[in-house]
Every structure is written in structure tokens, then in C-alpha cells.
Design a protein that fits this description.
- The protein is about 45% helix and about 15% strand.
- With about 280 residues, the chain is an alpha/beta fold.
- It has a 6-stranded mixed beta sheet with strand order 1-2-3-5-7-10, sandwiched between helices.
- Helix 1 (about 30-45) links the parallel strand 2 (about 15-20) and strand 3.
- The protein is globular, with a radius of gyration of 20 Å.
- Residues about 75 have low confidence and may be disordered.
Length: about 280
């Protein structure tokens, strides 16, 4: 299937989703918000891959939300001269935009972001919804919304606080300043920084391949419980993991993992079951 904002390939159990509008600095148009959750849910629901990698093209990872959305068809809700125009736009659209990135967090398989160049506004919303983030030395993030009179609202704040101190997040949000790659790593947002995009993609794909070699159900369990633990206290999480393992542990998968490790060969694991579409 072809998309207006993305190129999608799947090979060796790794789905590679590439933002493909470099001439527009990969700004997030109306098509972007529709296509991304469609792609993610198709991969997840139909068990097409075991890992997702999101990367981009051109000198900028993403310029964030395409401001044309405010004047194009998606914003044509009422008279743009009406002082309440903004509230109508957000009442009718913001939850759908939020859902586009929540699909990354809710899918059963890990999502890795590979960031080159600038990551503005909505781009930060995107990468904070991923499981891991890697960047090039020239990459940076900016919670840019303050510079256009907005408050970031598609997911940055509830997620970025899991990676960086509150005071730093407030500074970024109030000023819109750029945080470079090394600071992103030192603050805990990036897993690693690489010299250039080619090196970064080589390392990211190697990591994705390693994850794809693990038992998919166990990986899903890890993702689910880590996210649950982030949002709940210790005792609730202990109860949740106990119920998960009682329900989902597969002894044959555990045995295969141990035997494969002993024999120093790749494990032969079952894919995640397809979701019921009915």
C-alpha cells in the first residue's frame, strides 16, 4: 500500500516506517495523522512484524504540525474570523491527533525512533510515544509550540516527564529552546547518540534485529508491564505482572528460549496472534 507521508517496508520481522516529505521538512499534514495510526494498527493487528523503526528523510526529522491544517479543510469548521475558531478546531480534532501517537504506545510491539536533524513540536510528541530514541550528533528537540502561541497538547508533557526532570521540561516548554543531542542523552531522553544517520540506522537496525529474535509474547509482556508500572504504584504493578504471567506464560516458548540459548542458535518462536477484527 502507498502513503502520502510515509514509506513502509517490512523485512526480517522489522517494519521500517519512514517520514517521506523532506521537501516539506516532514511537517505533519492531515494525511500524516490519518496514515500513521492506520499503518501502526495494521502492522500490530496482523502481526506483520516484531519491531517497528521510525526514521525520516532530509535534514529535518520533522518540523512538527503542518500549520496549513489551521487554514485547510481540516480547520474549516466555522468562520476563521470567529474568536472561538481555535476552540472549535481543538474540540473537534485534538483527540484524534492524540490518538495517532497513542497508537505507538498501545501497540504490542516495540517502537524505536531514529532522529536526525531538528525535531520540532509535534515531532517531540511522536518520539516520546516511542519505546526508545536514538539521535544523530546534529539532532535536537524543541518544544516549539510556545513560539507560535500554543501549549503542546498531543502528548509531549505526560510522556517527556518520564524521561527528564520537571524543571528541565518546564524550561523547554516555557522558552522553546533547542536541546541538542548530547543533552538529550544526558537528560535521559535519548538512548544513544551516533555520528551520522547512516551509522545510527545501522545500529538501530541491529538493535531491532536483536529484539525481533526474542520471544514476541515475552517482549509484548515487557512493554505492557513497563508502561503499566510507569502509571501505577509498585503493589499494583506486582499484582498486574502476576496475573499477566499466570495468563500468558507459555512453557514451550520458555523451553525453546533456553534450548536455543544452550545450542547457540536463533529461537523458533510463535508470532503474536492476529487481533480479532470482527
Amino acid at each position: 500500500m502507498s502513503y502520502k507521508c510515509f514509506e513502509v517496508s517490512i523485512e526480517n520481522q522489522i517494519a521500517h516506517i519512514v517520514l517521506s516529505r523532506p521537501e516539506k521538512r516532514n511537517a505533519m499534514s492531515a494525511d500524516f495523522w490519518r496514515e500513521l495510526p492506520e499503518i501502526i494498527r495494521d502492522i500490530d493487528d496482523n502481526s506483520r512484524a516484531r519491531v517497528i523503526v521510525i526514521s525520516s528523510t532530509g535534514p529535518v526529522f520533522s518540523a512538527g504540525i503542518d500549520l496549513g491544517m489551521f487554514t485547510g479543510d481540516i480547520g474549516a469548521i466555522r468562520d476563521k474570523n470567529d474568536p472561538q475558531y481555535g476552540s472549535y478546531f481543538y474540540d473537534n480534532n485534538v483527540r484524534r491527533l492524540q490518538d495517532s501517537f497513542t497508537s505507538l504506545e498501545q501497540c504490542r510491539i516495540p517502537v524505536i525512533a531514529a532522529i536526525q536533524g531538528g525535531c520540532y513540536g509535534g515531532g517531540v510528541d511522536l518520539i516520546t510515544a516511542c519505546d526508545m530514541r536514538f539521535g544523530t550528533q546534529d539532532s535536537f528537540i524543541t518544544i516549539y509550540e510556545i513560539n507560535v502561541g500554543m501549549t503542546a497538547d498531543v502528548g509531549t508533557f505526560p510522556r517527556i516527564l518520564n524521561h527528564m526532570p520537571e524543571g528541565i521540561v518546564r524550561e523547554l516548554a516555557y522558552t522553546g529552546r533547542k536541546m541538542n543531542a548530547q543533552e538529550c542523552k544526558s537528560r535521559g531522553l535519548y538512548n544513544e547518540v551516533h555520528e551520522d544517520q547512516e551509522t545510527m540506522m545501522e545500529k538501530v537496525m541491529a538493535l531491532a534485529a536483536e529484539i525481533a529474535s526474542k520471544p514476541p509474547l515475552a517482549v509484548y509482556g515487557c512493554k505492557r508491564i513497563i508502561t503499566y508500572a510507569r502509571d501505577h504504584d509498585t503493589m499494583d504493578t506486582l499484582d498486574n505482572i502476576a496475573v499477566w504471567n499466570m495468563s500468558m506464560l507459555i512453557p514451550t516458548e520458555m523451553m525453546e528460549a533456553m534450548i536455543a540459548g544452550k545450542e547457540k542458535r536463533p529461537g523458533k518462536f510463535a508470532d503474536l496472534p492476529k487481533k480479532n477484527q470482527s
